[in-house]
Queue: 2 jobs
Job 1
Amino acid sequence: MIELQNVAMSYGGRELLSEMTLRLMPGSFHFLTGPSGAGKTTFLKLCYAELSPSSGMLSLFDRDVRMMTRDDVAAMRQRIGVVHQDCQFLDHLSVAENIALPLSVSRRAADPKELRELLSWVGLRAQADALPPQLSGGERQRAALARAVMMSPDIILADEPTGNLDWEMSQRLLNLLIELNRMGKTVLIATHDLNLIRTAKSQVATRVLRIANQRLQLAGADL
Ligand SMILES: Nc1ncnc2c1ncn2[C@@H]1O[C@H](COP(=O)(O)OP(=O)(O)OP(=O)(O)O)[C@@H](O)[C@H]1O
């Protein structure tokens, strides 16, 4: 699904990530951890072809990203749902309209019943017509998750999805991600939150990747 062979990533000639080799299999559940500034967000950006590797081979859905046209990348991105760290919304549109926005990019209208079900699933039925600034932090994160799954992607990438949330809200979001994984979605979550990783490990088979010294490693069972 996502495969890297000896991938490196540099910014302005400075190598941030080196010698990364990894294969994410369909239906797997991974965490990505590492110190602040280690390159977790950069790694996720590689995984949805927002960035191209400086060297090495990156393939998404069995296709080498170097061979993809712009249209190929756009089509491939519809299969990847991303929950960004800052989860920005268009503040003049309602929560429901924001969640349905990915469909409008491909000039499709949301099925009202599906949209209602999605809002219920993330516990935001009552906030459907609210504007994003009226949402709490936890509600924003759940709206961001709903937006990411609107297109029924095969892969969910989440960048610090529980960053500013209390423990109860973090668990609620984690449960939604676990549910998606049980439905067959491949999940990759970048997080500093070791408690979240431990909680997930007790519920689902996960692997923990760690970025250390520019390299991607498989973390030990001690986590
Ligand atoms: N577009 C860019 N141009 C130059 N440097 C960048 C760019 N984006 C990120 N960096 C640098 O790359 C490094 C890694 O950033 P990244 O956001 O990937 O780390 P991170 O592990 O996600 O950090 P955090 O946990 O704090 O979110 C940082 O030093 C950052 O300043």
Note: The CA atoms of residues 99 and 146 lie 6 Å apart.
Job 2
Amino acid sequence: MTDTLVALDQGTTSTRAILYDANLTPMASAQEEFAQHYPHSGWVEHDAMDLWKTSRRCLAEVLKDARPAALGLTNQRETTVVWDAETGKPLAPAIVWQDRRTSEVCAKLREEGFEDEITSRTGLLLDPYFSATKLAWILDQTEGARAAAKSGRVKFGTVDTWLIWNLTKGRVHATDATNACRTMLYNIHEGRWDRTICDRLDIPMEMLPEVRDSSGDFGETTLFGAPLPIRGVAGDQQAATVGQACFTPGMMKSTYGTGCFALLNTGTEPIASQHRLLTTVAYQLNGTPTYALEGSIFVAGAVVQWLRDGLGVIENAADTLAMAQQADPEQQLYLVPAFTGLGAPWWDADARGAIYGLTRNTGPNEFARAALESVGYQTRDLIEAMHADWTAPQDTTLRVDGGLSANPFAMQFLADILGAPVDRPANLETTALGAAYLAGLATGLCPEPEAFAANWRAEATFSPEMDAATRDAKYSGWTDAIRRTLSA
Ligand SMILES: Nc1ncnc2c1ncn2[C@@H]1O[C@H](COP(=O)(O)OP(=O)(O)O)[C@@H](O)[C@H]1O
Ligand SMILES: O=P(O)(O)OC[C@H](O)CO
């Protein structure tokens, strides 16, 4: 059957492959978790071979009896891999997006006044989150790496590039614009690698991959029998934006997994944020980038994991629903989950988590409710910043996905605190869906974006029920909690 598509979603904690029919209905899937390595405080590493081996095994599993028309690839973003093109071996462990080891390098560059230069060229903030300083760190640690990179022997890639290299047995060294724009080395206005930044960080441009459209030709793999063309590539949050059919300026999606990433489509002109959001490429089709404003929150579903693994007050994430519903309405507890600092729009790496409003009656139910509410409050912070940066041509409803969006209490509170409706599709795996669609678009199996968007359906809509005075009072309490939590 060649009217099927396969998506590979290489995420932070697991790798998934999903087979779709021509209508993009999932038919089969495989998933594998892999080890997280924390060698020092603030460091997070993956074995790049684990990323490749789990990808290969998951694909092999779903491709046992299928011969899809194309493969779409999506991936955890910013995570940095450097490898020897002759041996195929990584030079060092992959440095994961969450890794903070280069915060001093970033602080030094900021003192030297380089941040404005970075932001105006890349749309990003100067932060260890992005690939550039991670790549410089690996080059600094490995003797001879810079010379080998100049000669073309040593290559750099985000996870997509590393997987494409392996899938094509070293024939293709490429990425797409949505992944390139997260490296802090890519000029989003010119659509190419930025020489000024590469020179400043002493990164040989010879080691950087070719940047292509998100839907197009990335070679083919012959590792699973008949040749399988790779025709779609996008970073996972951008793929979810595509999977949620946010193709019109003003449309927005928010994905609630471990963290939360909200992307607002702003059209074909990049909008420079005045409120510490990121300007990012949402997708690039036929050589034209469409941009988004992005807000990244590091702790969303992870606060629920903390209730389970840190506090031990729940057994399963879903337990939070009944507990939050039973929480004492008289108590107003605020939980600011700054476990690893605060992301957008605060970008405070030194802030740490805090709880406000404890009384003698506070128990696990109130903690569960505060944890779910923290996700809504943080989303409102992002959306306030987005509205302050840019006026959308029309109002659209926020589309949500990701594991935590399954929780109706959290989604109702989100609608209440935003004072705006929230739409949730039936298929919460929008990331893989977006990757499959990009591949299907390139092969002609899937319709153009307008027709794909017309087929998008909400399975549930959450409408605001909270009165304005309560909403304002609650949000003002949160704003106060944030003010008291910020480190400076
Ligand atoms: N019913 C639920 N209620 C609250 N949180 C949930 C629920 N189901 C899953 N989660 C949270 O969602 C996260 C998993 O979502 P997922 O999209 O699989 O994340 P990731 O791709 O980042 O691993 C976990 O942090 C988990 O705690
Ligand atoms: O792998 P996820 O779903 O946690 O997403 C990670 C993001 O791409 C990081 O920017």
Note: The pocket of SN-glycerol-3-phosphate (ligand 2) is lined by residues 11-12, 76-78, 97, 235-237, 257-259 (CB under 6 Å).
